[in-house]
Amino acid sequence: MGRFSLPDERPKGLNAPVTKKAIKLMSRVHVRVFKLTNGRIGHRWRVGSAFTKPAPTLLLEHIGRKSGTTFTTPVLYLDDPPNVVIVASIGGMKRHPQWYRNLMANPETRVHLRKERGRPIRAREATDEERARLWPMLVDLYADFEKYQGWTDRKIPVLILEPRG
After folding, report:
1. Are 125 and 133 in contact (CB under 8 A)?
2. Fewest 10 Å CB contacts: which of 64, 88, 106, 108?
């Protein structure tokens, strides 16, 4: 384990209620700062393996599948023109992130990138072939994705956000 890397084994405190609350709070702050600065601050993730190699961040809008409420979540992304690719890792937790389930129920939404607000997209899960091509690029972008996959029994979904109209 390097100076800025995560342990090979899943930290026990990752599922603690206080950890989940902290993640929610940090996400809210991230969204607010990103929006206030039009992405000038918050467009790069500098945690874990991204400390020395920052990863790009976007804001993902998603509609609650039960509530119908619009939520916004910061997510790391890979630019794969004309698409944007995201990973539903949530730090290797046991369950898929809420935003993933929301996107599967309501795939048409918008993303906000640095200096670009409200890009309309349609989300879909990558096929096995697409995932095999994209996964090495995603791990190169943010090496901790590989550790997250090792920490969970679920197959971490890779989503392709395709431009729409």
Report:
1. no
2. 108
CA-to-CA distance for 104 and 100, rounded, in angstroms? Answer: 6
In the chain, where the domains are located: 12-163
In the block, which residue shows the tokens 């994209």? Answer: 134
On whether the CB atoms of residues 90 and 96 are closer than 8 A, the answer is yes
Is the bond into 136 cis (omega within 30 degrees of 0)? no
pLDDT tens, residue by residue, 56-76: 999 999 999 999 999 999 999
SS3 34: helix
This prediction's pTM: 0.85
Q: Domain 12-163, what fold?
A: Pnp Oxidase; Chain A (2.30.110)
89 alpha-carbon distance from chain centroid: 7
User: How confident is the model over 116-147, as pLDDT tens digits?
Assistant: 889 999 999 999 999 999 999 999 999 999 98
Q: From CA 123, how far away is CA 97, in angstroms rounded?
A: 15
Task: Assign 108 to helix, strand or coil.
Answer: strand
